[in-house]
């Protein structure tokens, strides 16, 4: 068992709530800081119900330096997992200042408070979106970065800031070094197998899986398949979908790596979290139909601006250094999405 306290920013959200379940199950003390701008505290009640364990929740914005400092003073975390952020690509193009203020400035405040409290272990939610476009669709961590929208650029800027923080401590040699894992997620989908927590998008979903689930349950009339003329096996876009429970387990492995000899002298390293293979939009639809017995009403529409034909991870580094790989398959992802959707047709209410 574990007596470390992990502070989870954004812990009430989709990925954060699943992380809290796994952290509590592994014996960590969990402190959540979330302003509930894109979530409901009900998710945290359900996390505690699933695990039979309690966590501490502060409804606080990470940009509120004083409140955050008080939380660090009171709770003495050893590690922070930083999920808090805004994540809608379209909205980030309409309101870039909001995204840079929330995501980038929020991380600056968080890391200042961490430095002051001498808490220097951080696991950060980055994204495959930070990579530039490539003719070869499988990404390794050393591939050049080149985000193409404000959301993606906010993630790339934060990665730069965190690399700089680590480098600054290395130069001064007086401080304890930063230990930072930048986890670049591919496409998280699915839900906890209990069906009690899952993805609860605000309004009409932007992403494929929640959209398909809402068509299947009758909340939305029809799915638009964005393009069937890509140079892929069936013409539709291919992505590396990863079960959210597999994804959050990668964070626990990252904490262990930060604690052990790999990061003894500090470090700031990026890891891809993906399955290493992709599925097309039509393959997702077909699997959804097979698992649920529902027909998905869809039509072929024009391509969505900014979409790549194909994108999947090379997850070898995470296997080698974090001892992590995915365990669940597409059938599990669809089954758990559908279980969550049918048990919570209106999301958290
Ligand atoms: P989410 O919106 O469900 O969770 C984010 C949480 O952060 C929410 O609970 C929100 O209320 C909180 N939050 C936002 N700004 C905050 C602030 N200033 N102070 C305190 N709390 C704040 O999103 P998610 O899907 O769980 O994503 C978690 C993280 O992973 C995000 O940083 C996101 O960019 C990143 N990510 C997500 C995906 C994905 O497909 N879901 C892919 C790659 C990266
Ligand atoms: C999108 C974001 C990315 C973010 C990721 C996970 C864009 C351009 N990119 O990536 O920054 O990190 O979500 O949150 O928004 N599709 C349809 N119809 C739909 C929705 C999607 O055909 O209604 C297709 C897309 O064209 C794509 C695939 O489904 O081929 C997956 O789309 P989506 O779930 O939005 O993920 P990404 O595009 O990979």
Question: Overview of this structure, please?
Answer:
By secondary structure, this protein is an alpha/beta fold. It has a single domain (5-343), classed as Rossmann fold, CATH 3.40.50. It contains eleven helices and 15 strands. The strands form four sheets. It has a seven-stranded parallel sheet, with helices on both faces. Helix 2 (42-51) links the parallel strand 2 (29-33) and strand 3 (56-58). Helix 7 (208-216) crosses helix 11 (330-343). The longest helix has 23 residues, at 150-172. It is globular. The two termini are 34 Å apart. The mean pLDDT is 95. The protein binds nicotinamide-adenine-dinucleotide (NAD) and uridine-diphosphate-N-acetylglucosamine (UD1). Nicotinamide-adenine-dinucleotide (NAD) is lined by residues 9-10, 12-16, 34-39, 61-63, 83-87, 102, 106, 125, 127, 185, 188.
In a nutshell, what does this entry contain?
With about 350 residues, this protein is of the alpha/beta class.
Question: What key phrases describe this protein's structure?
Answer:
binds nicotinamide-adenine-dinucleotide, alpha/beta, 11 helices, Rossmann fold, seven-stranded parallel β-sheet, 41% helix, four-stranded mixed β-sheet, binds uridine-diphosphate-N-acetylglucosamine, 349 residues, globular
Helix-strand blueprint:
Layout: E1 5-9, H1 14-25, E2 29-33, H2 42-51, E3 56-58, H3 65-75, E4 79-82, H4 89-94, H5 96-117, E5 121-127, E6 138-139, H6 150-172, E7 179-185, E8 187-189, H7 208-216, E9 223-226, E10 238-239, E11 241-243, H8 244-259, E12 267-273, E13 279-280, H9 281-292, E14 298-301, E15 310-313, H10 316-322, H11 330-343
Parallel strand pairs: 1-2, 1-4, 2-3, 4-5, 5-7, 6-15, 7-12, 8-11, 9-14, 10-15
Antiparallel strand pairs: 10-13
Helix pairs in contact: 1-2, 1-8, 3-5, 5-6, 7-9, 7-11, 9-11
The site of nicotinamide-adenine-dinucleotide has 27 residues, from helix 1, helix 5 and strand 5.
């Amino acid at each position: 068992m574990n007596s470390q306290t992990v502070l989870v920013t954004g812990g009430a959200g989709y990925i954060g709530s699943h992380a809290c379940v796994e952290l509590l199950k592994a014996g960590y003390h969990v402190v959540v800081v979330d302003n509930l701008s894109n979530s409901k505290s009900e998710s945290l009640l359900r996390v505690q119900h699933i695990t039979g364990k309690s966590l501490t929740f502060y409804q606080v914005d990470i940009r509120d330096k004083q409140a955050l400092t008080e939380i660090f003073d009171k709770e003495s975390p050893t590690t922070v997992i930083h999920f808090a952020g805004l994540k809608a690509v379209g909205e980030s193009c309409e309101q870039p200042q909001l995204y840079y203020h929330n995501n980038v400035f929020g991380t600056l405040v968080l890391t200042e408070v961490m430095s002051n409290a001498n808490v220097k272990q951080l696991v950060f939610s980055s994204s495959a979106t930070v990579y530039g476009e490539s003719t070869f669709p499988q990404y390794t961590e050393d591939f050049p970065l080149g985000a193409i929208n404000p959301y993606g650029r906010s993630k790339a800027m934060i990665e730069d800031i965190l690399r700089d923080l680590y480098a600054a401590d290395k130069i001064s040699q007086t401080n304890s070094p930063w230990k930072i894992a930048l986890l670049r997620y591919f496409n998280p989908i699915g839900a906890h197998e209990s069906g009690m927590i899952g993805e609860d998008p605000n309004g009409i979903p932007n992403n494929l899986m929640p959209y398909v689930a809402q068509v299947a349950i009758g909340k939305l009339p029809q799915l638009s398949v964005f393009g069937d003329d890509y140079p892929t096996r069936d013409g539709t876009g291919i992505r590396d979908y990863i079960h959210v429970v597999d994804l959050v387990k990668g964070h626990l492995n990252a904490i262990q790596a930060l604690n052990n000899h790999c990061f003894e002298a500090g470090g700031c390293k990026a890891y891809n979290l993906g399955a290493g293979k992709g599925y097309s939009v039509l393959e997702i639809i077909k699997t959804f139909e097979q698992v649920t017995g529902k027909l998905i009403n869809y039509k072929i529409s024009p391509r969505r601006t900014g979409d790549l034909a194909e994108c999947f991870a090379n997850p070898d580094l995470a296997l080698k250094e974090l001892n992590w790989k995915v365990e669940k398959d597409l059938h599990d992802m669809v089954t758990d999405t559908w279980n969550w959707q049918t048990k919570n047709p209106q999301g958290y209410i």
